[in-house]
Amino acid sequence: KGAKKRKMEVKAKRGDDDIHVIVFPFAIQGHINPMLQFSRRLVSRGVRVTLATTSPFATKFTPLDSNPITVETISDGTTEVARVKNTDIYITRFNEVAPHSLTELIEKKLKLKDRVKCLIYDSTIPWGLDIARKFGIYGVPFFTHSCLVSLVFHQVYHGVLTAPIEEETKVCVDGMPVIEAR
Questions:
Q1: Domains (ranges, CATH) in the chain?
Q2: Is 114 exposed, middle or buried (CB count within 10 Å of its CB: 0-12, 13-18, 19+)?
Q3: How far apart are CA 17 and CA 1, in angstroms?
Q4: Which residues are catalytic, by number?
Q5: What local confidence, expressed as pLDDT, does residue 20 receive?
Q6: Contact 47, 144 (CB under 8 A)
Q7: Model pTM greater than 0.85?
Q8: CA-CA distance, 116 to 105, in Å (whole number)?
Q9: Which residue in 142, 146, 113 sits closest to 42, CA to CA?
Q10: pLDDT digits (tens, 9 = 90+) for 58-108
């Protein structure tokens, strides 16, 4: 009852109909849970969330009445066995098949007059933005790594740090403690 009332209050403040987003994590360790936690936060704010994931991971999600995240399965073009045996082949196949499968999911939602407004995709999947643009919806990369990692990437990009970092090097980034490379 409380969650339903809160959802109605959020809609009233927003002055909009239903906001629906599709969240698409890269199905590897360290990427799913942060995006799932973020999805739960969105749901608590009255946003409707569809989690698009590959078949082996879809069976692990059980939506609860108190946290209604819809789970939709998309193809990654591989089997569980192929995924485990060769990561390079899996990633190549994933990048060939998953964009088409995700596109089909969004097309299906839009044909059902389901007003998807945004695709929130794992930052390791750069083609997510291309798919969002194709449908004229917002595309938002979700970074699962820590702020410190983003800061180091920024320093490398601007030439302040060089990569790869030599072993036993101390890295100084403004506002952070000294980091030792090992």
A1: 2-144 (3.40.50.2000), 146-182 (no CATH)
A2: middle
A3: 20
A4: 31, 122
A5: 95
A6: no
A7: no
A8: 11
A9: 142
A10: 666 665 555 588 888 898 877 655 555 777 887 888 889 999 999 999 999
